[in-house]
Structures are given as structure tokens and as C-alpha cells.
Amino acid sequence: MTAASPPRPEHVPASATYDPESAQWREDSETVVRRWYRDGQPLLDANLRAGKLHGAVEWVTNHPEFNYGEEPRRAAIALQQQYGLPIGPSLTTRIEAVYEDGAIVRATFHGYPFGAVALVASWRGGRLHGRFDWLKITEGEILRFGDTVIGAHDVKLPKPHPHRGVSEFVDGKRKSTAFFDRDGQEIVQPKPIKAWGQEATPASLPGYVARGEFERDLAAFFPNGRRVTELAADSRPLAQWIDRLPEGHRAAARAFDALVRSGRFPWLGQRFDVSGTYGFDCVKQGLAGAADERYVGLSADGSGNMHLLDTTTGRVLGYEHESDSFDAERGFADLDAFAFAMPRVEAAASKRIPAKKLAELFKALGLTGGLAELG
Fold first, then answer.
1. Residue 2 above 60 pLDDT?
2. Nearest CA to 279 among 302, 253, 305, 315?
3. 119, 130, 147, 326: which could form a disulfide with 134 (CB 3.0–4.6 Å)?
4. In the chain, which residue ranges form alpha helices assigned H by DSSP?
């Protein structure tokens, strides 16, 4: 050890020498390349055959989020570039790869939380081939290796975004992709809706909920996926507010309430989620700008905005959570108009109904609230 060398970390072998220029411990031979940073942090552990990467290769980086220091991170990235190792998802902290005579065969990318597998990819003849399995990546690059760049949006991601995606590659070309939720259940991407009420007229709206057409359309538009089986424990029961409603609005309210509580209502998390908002008690929850017994919750969108029923008039009002106020443009004359519009807005958000044609229908029906929800 020279005077310029730091103390040898306990797990750095005696065969390793210190390079002050790179601030790394090095162990190089015909069969192995190993690197540690000055303090002993492992950077690279690679096997060689005939001067080429062969067998197990392990590379460790330091994403800033883990506070291991910028200098070790730069050293790890430099080694990654020097040996042409693949670049994985943005929070990758370690890769474990297998090479055969310089050609990569398989790589597992570990990321955040520390040690979690973020991506598993395999290659044949230098091209992606076989399973390509990534976890919780919805934007940016997933993989960069040579001329190959794979991004999250190279495939159409369903909404809500999947927990996991699994693609099958054949000689560098993606042949299929499946998505899975947090419970491991495959997410079946719904098909476009062909018949979504294009011929509706203003006369179609009164009685839409009570006649059962609302339930019929929900079942037809959203046949798969989970259902709303539980509401918030403190949701207001129908009996508390039904008598406040004008008589002409009560049949729709009873039918709407029965459907939400039936276990058949689909979970629509983008624009029309009743699971945590139906029966919302605006007084008990101290809803700013709407803490009044006259209001009861109907649904919410993915950003936290809600729809409240005004039980004194039967109107449905759009509540903005950021401004603690009502948006006049998001209102509906009654539950029938609201129930007609919102499943279609949800379907349009998933690209299953053409938004332009739906906007034309809403204009013809006088549903200005539907137009506002379309955005």
C-alpha cells in the first residue's frame, strides 16, 4: 500500500490494488474484473473469457435518492459506459446480468425500494428475445442498450396505470404485451364501444335511471373489471335525505342508490368513482364551501373533484376541491342527465368512445356539464 492509498476496506481482497486517479480498488485478471470505490463500496464484479464478458456480471450504481454520494455514482456510471452495460429504469441501483462470449443473455435490474426487481430482460444474438418484464414504470425509458431504446409509452398503457407489464419479444420485435394490477390479475384492455347512445334525444333523458337504462349501459360499457362492493363507512343512507328531494327526482335517486349498493356498479376511477364518495357527508366532513345538509356526495374523479347532489333542487353540482367552490359549468339539471353523461365521459377518457362525437351529442342534448367534464 502506498502512502496515498486509503486503508483497505475489510471486504476488499488483498489481491486488489488501489488506483488513486479513479479512487477505486481494482482486481483485474484474465478471468475477472472487479472494482470497489475508495471506501469499499462495490461497483463492478464481472467474469471474463478470452477478454470478453462471460458468465455473471454485477454492476452497482448509486442513485442520488440513496445518498451514497455523487462521486461513487459517477464512477459506477463510467464503468457502465466503459463495458457497454445496459441502462435500466431511472431508479436502477444494481444489475445482475449473464453474458456469453461478450453477448448479453439476460439482465435483472434492481431498483427502488432497495433491492426490488424493476425489470427483467433477455436477449438472443444481441436482440431482445423472450420475456421483458417491468414493474411500476409508467413514463420515461425502461431500457437503453446499444441501438435499442424501450420506453414506457412504446405500448398503450391502460388507465389506471398497471402495476406490471410483461412483453414477449422475438428477434428484437415486440409481439405481445400483457398488463397486471397490484394483485397480479391481468388487466384486460376494453374494446371500443360501438353502440353508446349516439341516437339519444332530449326526450331520452327523463327516466333514464329509473327505467334501468343506466344500469344496462354500465353493464354494457364496463363488463369486466372490479365492482364497487363497499362504500365509505360513514356514507349517508338514502333514508336521511330522500325526503328532502322534490318528488319528481326521488325515483331516480332510489334507483341510483340501489344500483350503487348492489355490488354491480363498476369501479370507474378516472372520472366517475362512487366507491369513496357516494353518500359523502359534507357536514360531518366539514367540506369547505359546502358544509350543508342539503348536499350529499355522488362521485369523484381521479383528481379529487366531486359531484354533489343538491337535495333541495335535485341538481348535480361540480365541486372543486382546490378552490372549495362549485363550478357552474360542471353542473347537471338532475340525476338522469348526470347518469347519462358520466359513464360516457369515463369511456371517452379511455379512448373507447370518440370524444369529438360525444361532445357533439352532448351539445345536441344540452348537456353543458358533460362538455365541461370532457374537457
1. no
2. 253
3. 119
4. 70-82, 213-221, 238-241, 247-260, 335-349, 355-365, 368-374
